[in-house]
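step=encode ok
step=design start
structure_in=
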């Protein structure tokens, strides 16, 4: 953050958005109504990722989904008493926003946490997320190669600004009509 002061602004923006969506981790302190939270849009959208990727028929694995042998985990470090309550309040808020079926997770016991190789004195919450997955480390290189093979151009210093879509099939689907990018070095939009 010292080398790039712009990161302070990003950190403050993230905290402001968290305050608006989650409040002070006390019921009733969130500033945004449910339908205006980031989670209201992002969690259902993320849940579509496996379906979308399956339709793409890619020649390589882009997403590894949780299964009986390999489960997506989320570890929360910190002191047990303070973090555990915040974790439960945050989970309740997410369930309030998108429903419990979208926030499927199981809190592991202290014994299970230890058996997974985590120190229960350091990790206060270890959760399994059956509906989640993870991206392989090679996914960006694989996708870049696909873009180049397909005649596209990879712009390494571009930042996605917006994707404009047009509803089709009575609003059940959409087509991308325009994609806007910003060159992170020059600030030029394309």
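sequence_out=
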């Amino acid at each position: 953050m010292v080398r790039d002061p712009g990161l302070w602004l990003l950190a403050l923006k993230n905290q402001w958005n968290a305050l608006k969506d989650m409040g002070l981790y006390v019921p009733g302190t969130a500033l945004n109504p449910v339908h205006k939270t980031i989670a209201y849009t992002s969690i259902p959208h993320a849940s579509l990722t496996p379906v979308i990727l399956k339709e793409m028929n890619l020649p390589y694995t882009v997403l590894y989904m949780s299964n009986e042998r390999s489960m997506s985990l989320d570890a929360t470090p910190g002191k047990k008493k303070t973090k555990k309550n915040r974790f439960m309040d945050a989970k309740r808020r997410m369930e309030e926003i998108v429903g419990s079926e979208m926030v499927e997770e199981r809190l592991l016991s202290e014994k299970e946490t230890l058996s997974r190789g985590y120190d229960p004195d350091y990790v206060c919450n270890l959760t399994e997320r059956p509906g989640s997955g993870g991206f392989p480390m090679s996914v960006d290189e694989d996708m870049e190669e696909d873009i180049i093979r397909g005649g596209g151009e990879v712009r390494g210093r571009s930042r996605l600004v917006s994707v404009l879509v047009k509803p089709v099939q009575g609003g059940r689907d959409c087509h991308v009509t325009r994609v806007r990018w910003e060159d992170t070095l020059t600030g030029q939009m394309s």
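step=design ok
step=annotate ok -> The radius of gyration is 20 Å.
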